[in-house]
Structures are given as structure tokens and as C-alpha cells.
Amino acid sequence: MRNRRLFDKGKQSEDINISPLIDMVFILLIFFIVTTVFVEETGVDVNKPQAASASDLDKNSILIAITENGNVVYGGKNVGISGVRPIIRRLYQKEKMPVIIQADRKSITDVVVRVIDEAKLAGAESVSLSTED
């Protein structure tokens, strides 16, 4: 009996405290969420034309879509041609980003040219057309 008591006193809890590990994982998660660049999609599907000279552009850019029937869309909302200039001016105050126009292959050329013109009048330094590879 005496030996048993000595043995029980010497045995201590050998549990691992994982609280600091969980805290560290949450801090890393928050860090990665904050540093991730979020790409705003236009909100509509556009059937883009193909181009042999297509190249990748910055992920951090202003995407404007032009649908087949001539609607100008930004962030899932129909902004029209007159809404392009204020959007680009507002976004350019935060950071200078390239403007990428995703025009449907059946869209009206006049609308595409007017959107490019509005983007340049808003101060866009780089305006590109999005195509398929």
C-alpha cells in the first residue's frame, strides 16, 4: 500500500495544453484573410472573343463588362455608360489600377468605344479588352 501511494504522487497530468496553438492558428488565419487580394468580378457571364496575342494582366484591376445587348455592368449592377466615369474616378482615388473591359463578342462596337472613352476621360492610364486564349 505504501508503494502505491508513492507511485500515485509521482504521477502528474501529462496533458498537452493546445490553447496557444489554437490562438496562433487564428492569428495566421486573420493575417492571410487581411493580406489576400480580392478580385471583384463583374457579375455577368460574357462570351469573350478569342485573340492569339492574349496575355495575363494584374489581378488587382477594375473589371467592367459589356453584355450582348449593350448593358454596361460593374459589380453585378447595370451602371450604364454614364456610370463608368464616376466608378473609375472613385476607385482611382484609392489606388491606380488598370481597367479591363470584358465585352461580349456580339456586343455593339459603339458601346465598347464609348466605355473605353469614358474610362480614359476618368483618368485611367491603362484600358484593356479581355479576351479568351
Q: What's the helix and strand layout?
A:
Blueprint: H1 2-10, H2 19-35, E1 62-66, E2 72-74, E3 77-78, H3 84-94, E4 99-103, H4 109-121, E5 127-129
List keywords for this structure.
five-stranded mixed β-sheet; elongated; 4 helices; alpha/beta; 2 domains; about 15% strand; about 130 residues; Nucleotidyltransferase, domain 5
Helix content estimate: 25-40%
Q: What is the average per-residue confidence, as pLDDT, rounded to a whole number?
A: 79
What's the total helix number? 4
Total beta strand runs: 5
CATH fold field value of the largest domain = Nucleotidyltransferase, domain 5
What is the number of domains? 2
Radius of gyration: 27 Å
Order of helices and strands: HHEEEHEHE
Q: Main β-sheet: number of strands, strand sense, barrel status?
A: 5 strands, mixed
Provide the CATH architecture of the largest domain.
2-Layer Sandwich
Basic shape: elongated
CATH class of the largest domain: Alpha Beta
User: First CA to last CA: what distance?
Assistant: 82 Å
Regions with pLDDT < 50 over 5+ consecutive residues? none
